Amino acid sequence: MDFKNSDTIPGPRTEDRLPHTAEAAVKIVIVGGFGVGKTTMVGSVSEIRPLTTEETMTQAGIGVDDNYGSASKTATTVAMDFGRISITDQLVLYLFGTPGQERFWFLWNGLFEGALGAVVLVDTRRLEVSFDVMGRLEERGVPFVVAVNTFPDAPRYPVAELRTALDLPDEIPILDCDVRRRASSRDVLMTLMRFLHSLAVKGALT
Amino acid sequence: MTPPQRRRRAPGGDRPAEVPAPAPPGKEGEIRNPERLFVIGGEGGGERADIDLVTLIVARADPPVSATPEQAALLRLCAAPLSVAELSAYLSLPFSVVTVLITDLLAAELVQARASIVRQKVADRNLLEAVMHGLQKL
């Protein structure tokens, strides 16, 4: 990027600008393994073309992870795709798709601490990839729902069997989705919001 | 076919995030201009404002003559409110570098930061209902 000509830096398109009344933003984090559909989900509900924020990563964390076999994935920058949904003229919701490995999480200050909640996106062909993510969220006390992205060739398990395998309590919603479809991705987010709402109601009663 | 089996974890079992070791000097091309990132961050060093990915930033003034090219670019971008994540994306700069830039601009009163809403122990019901209402319109 040539900052000497800062006039030429492409900013948001006119229709992608937030109104001046926008005063607060909330975020939801979508976590999952590589290729599980995080960016697809962000893109299917976002009002802007998904953008990418980067953070530099030290060499220390590189080469440890088998999932980073390809050369392009071992770069010193780590990327996170995100999208945006304007809720009202004052309130904006951001959706971040982040890799499941915790060492990425601390790169972005308060990524989970400030989030309303999380969606754990799973692929039943590689269910175990999501185990550690769920454990981390449990440890941090971040409420989450589990969305199973239905790939055509993936094994289909009854929800009860999945719940047992994932060792999840009954109140945590588990649902199937097709993240390529806007309505399906929206349903996942609505399920998370209803779950958070039920926790808020329960919290107010106790 | 039986799925693999996970075991639930308890809240609070979290360890503090490991502090990454400083990067050893990389081979040429492995690290992109680390000096440049330092220069962009300015001399303030260390102290960063408490800025989240979704903190909304709004310019309070046109870029002064003294502004660096990066500061000027950032100020032009946030003529209307823009999240730190979006600023990072449009400027093609890492989040931490944008945070340092904003810290300097906040100190110079050239930008305003509109606080992000942080999750309370129990989220605010009115806020959750507002988000649900907004999602229903999608």
Automatic annotation (TrEMBL), chain A:
Keywords: ATP-binding, GTP-binding, Hydrolase, Nucleotide-binding. CDD domains: Ras_like_GTPase. Belongs to the GPN-loop GTPase family. This is ATP-binding protein. It comes from the Bacteria. One of its GO terms (molecular function) is ATP binding. It comes from Streptomyces parvulus. Pfam families: ATP_bind_1 (PF03029).
TrEMBL record, chain B:
Residues 1-33 are annotated as: Disordered. InterPro entries: DUF742. Residues 1-10 have a biased composition (Basic residues). This is DUF742 domain-containing protein. It comes from Streptomyces parvulus.
